[in-house]
Design brief:
binds adenosine-5'-diphosphate, four-stranded antiparallel sheet, 6 strands, Rossmann fold, binds magnesium ion
């Protein structure tokens, strides 16, 4: 009999590697504002997760804690199984795109996007090539030598996103990155 067992055709199940683990993390700011009640969250490699909630519910607070920019009042946060405080010796790369573009106003678009590569000591020629690839991803390759003030708010935000992508991060954290973009660009 030539019967095919569908189970033998299925890919082997690979256990998902948790990239981010939030373990009962909570945050009360020094002024007493209780920004976040204990949260548990696990995000596997390759997952795309969106946090939804009204303004002031603690989305930015949680993101900043995952990035190690803010300490939880209690609980733990792990990135690839390591406490976020030890991110500097983690082989995985993390990028954070802030809610506002946070560009250097005196520097060209290209120099702004290259900043993380310059800080990492990537040779100039390779860095410039990666900057152009990253700008192409957000549709701004023609604006490489422009200054931020010559761009609209939405275009500045796309520069900031390009800067987040240029290091080809393993973990990309974005805080309302598409708020300033028009509907068509946002979908793209
Ligand atoms: N540095 C801070 N000091 C005190 N309170 C803060 C601070 N940052 C945020 N908050 C408060 O924490 C709560 C959550 O804020 P936030 O994480 O920015 O929310 P979201 O990003 O969802 O709009 C809000 O009540 C906000 O006012
Ligand atoms: Mg926010």
């Amino acid at each position: 009999m030539n019967r095919i067992d569908p189970h033998t055709l299925a890919p082997p199940t690979v256990p998902a590697v948790p990239a981010v683990e939030v373990l009962s993390a909570e945050k009360t700011y020094p002024n007493g504002t209780q920004a976040l009640l204990p949260v548990d969250l696990s995000i596997a490699e390759g997952e795309f997760v969106t946090l939804l909630g009204p303004s002031g519910c603690g989305k930015s607070t949680l993101l900043k804690m995952v990035a190690g920019m803010l300490e939880p009042s209690d609980g733990r946060l792990l990135v690839w199984r390591k406490p976020v405080a030890q991110l500097h010796d983690c082989p995985h790369k993390l990028s954070f795109v802030f809610q506002s573009p946070t560009l250097m106003p005196w520097a060209s678009v290209q120099t702004n996007v290259r900043l993380p590569l310059d800080l990492a000591g990537v040779p100039r020629k390779e860095a410039d090539a990666r900057v152009m690839e990253s700008l192409a991803l957000v549709g701004l390759e023609k604006f490489a030598s422009a200054l931020p003030r010559a761009l609209s708010g939405g275009m500045q935000m796309r520069v900031s996103i390009a800067r987040g992508l240029v290091t080809q991060p393993d973990l990309l954290l974005m805080d309302e990155p598409f708020g300033a973009l028009d509907e068509i660009t946002r979908h793209k």
